[in-house]
Design goal:
The protein has about 180 residues and is mainly α. It has helices spanning about 1-5, 15-25, 25-90, 100-135, 145-155, 175-180, and strands at about 165, 170. Keywords: Cell membrane, Membrane, Olfaction, Receptor, Sensory transduction, Transducer, Transmembrane, Transmembrane helix.
Length: about 180
């Protein structure tokens, strides 16, 4: 993307006229390439900063969404499970105790909602990993010192291990769903 946005700024030294003009003047060629590299770094810096702002916005949105709906989703799964058990009790003869098959059936009815919640928590965790990988793969270490400082600051400050938690020490993920099913 940086190459596309700075292609028009690249000095054209491929034709004979420009080479003849610049052949004796090495400083002119170096100046043209320095200007092109500076423009490229400026575009790169703007793109990195906009990606960083976007990532912070996504994090804030996900945290607000989690803070608002975490309790609602947990209660929804719990109430859904209890309603399934109650409905099963009404359908099954009241004189017989509830068998494990009824509990298993109720869990199967509640499982899709719980899986959806756990997958959203996993996706929230994956956002951080994808951002960290994309940030590192941009070859930031080949850029100007300002860009390097900004990217290193991002690596130092950003918490890439953020996860969506239901309670202290309990994080929503596919592993959490698998442990609940077991």
């Amino acid at each position: 993307l940086v190459e596309e946005r700075t292609a028009h700024l690249r000095p054209d030294l491929s034709n004979g006229i420009s080479r003849r003009r610049c052949r004796g003047d090495k400083d002119t060629r170096e100046t043209l390439y320095q200007k092109w590299n500076q423009a490229k770094d400026l575009v790169y810096s703007r793109l990195i900063r906009s990606c960083s702002r976007h990532h912070r916005f996504v994090h804030r949105y996900a945290e607000q969404l989690t803070a608002t709906y975490k309790l609602v989703m947990v209660l929804f799964v719990a109430v859904n499970f209890l309603l399934d058990v109650g409905f099963s009790c009404m359908v099954v003869d009241n004189e017989h105790p509830i068998t494990s098959a009824v509990w298993f059936g109720c869990l199967l009815m509640s499982a899709p909602v719980l899986l959806l919640v756990c997958c959203s928590g996993e996706y929230y965790t994956d956002i951080n990993g994808r951002y960290r990988t994309a940030l590192y793969e941009t070859k930031w270490y080949e850029r100007s010192v300002d860009v390097q400082k900004f990217v290193l600051l991002q690596f130092a400050v950003t918490n890439f291990e953020r996860r969506m938690s239901v309670a202290p020490g309990i994080y929503l993920s596919r592993a959490f769903f698998a442990s609940l099913v077991k």
